[in-house]
Amino acid sequence: MGTPINTAAGAAHAAILGVGAYRPRTVVPNADVIEAIDSSDEWIQQRSGIKTRGFAQDDETVVMMSVNASRQALDRAGIGPEQVGTVIVATVSHLLQTPSAATMIAHELGTNKAAAFDISAACAGFCHGVALAADMVRSGSSGHVLVIGVERLSDITSPSDRGTAFIFADGAGAVVVGPSEVPGIGPVVWGSDGEHYDHIRQDVPWDDALEQATSGELAEAPHLVMQGSAVFRWAAFEMAKVAQEALDRAGITPEQLDVFVPHQANNRITDAMARAMKLPETVQIARDIIDQGNTSAASVPMALERMISDGQARSGDTALLIAFGAGLAYAAQVVTVP
Ligand code: UT7
Fold this sequence. Notes:
about 25% strand; five-stranded mixed sheet; 14 strands; Peroxisomal Thiolase, Chain A, domain 1; 2 domains; globular; alpha/beta; binds oxa(dethia)-CoA
């Protein structure tokens, strides 16, 4: 036995205290993306639900969008940046290998040297971040944790790739997780199906791209590729079970649920999950994808923010979050709407 080491003591419970979002200024209708992929407005709407998406301009960087979403979340939580103990950024499109986007964001926000790091769990990243944040608040590692989901997928999507060009988009969402007198974040149900590791991925690894660039053979920058229908089937069948398990572990029945905020991957996947879970008609369902597209790690907080702003989700409501994507990684939890 070594010398006893002190441990930290955290809050009894954790909750989401505020939600913010940043939506890119440029709204791009289907008409503007169909030519390069020989598609149609009708096909895109019917297969995915998407009518428009937001594409970030040069000044709408990962950091800028994150800082804006975070300021809104902090304001709504009534928390100053100096109270933030940790900044967690979920993203796959911060195109600087190191340092993390989180350190830059923590600095721009004016935190007091907050711990800051990025996590890579693709579209599921935000729900992973919320799970980490809740555990950190309860364990005493941090008083308040800022969790950001942010993407500039337009930077890593080929406009001529039929399987991805119409679906992926840009934006940021953020939440403040902090101490609470009552439980506001239920147990996370998370995991990975690594046998489908290659279903959504960057087509050429950076080391190969570098070699090709050096020898003058690089035809185009590496971009995302997706086996869309395989991912669709996996998500539609497997994710409803994960969502149900998150409800069960939180002790919530579908009848007690007010709001369902699935990753905005495809409206038809959302429909399939809602049907499989037999969600009552009273449950409000996020449909942010229709005008924001699929913003990967940003989609759940952006969709939640929209529902709160529109009055579809009210303070005290019980919401089920679930996100899934490349890896294939997934995470789900029940939360109370702040
Ligand atoms: O966010 C991370 C997780 N991602 C997801 O969950 C996305 C999951 N996947 C999807 O949402 C869907 O697979 C897509 C929306 C990407 C595609 O829809 P789909 O119904 O799975 O289309 P498909 O790839 O099975 O193709 C159906 C048909 C094919 O034609 P035939 O063989 O039936 O004649 C394709 O050639 O649609 C054709 N097609 C297109 N047509 C117009 C494929 N891509 C396009 C296109 N425009 N962009």
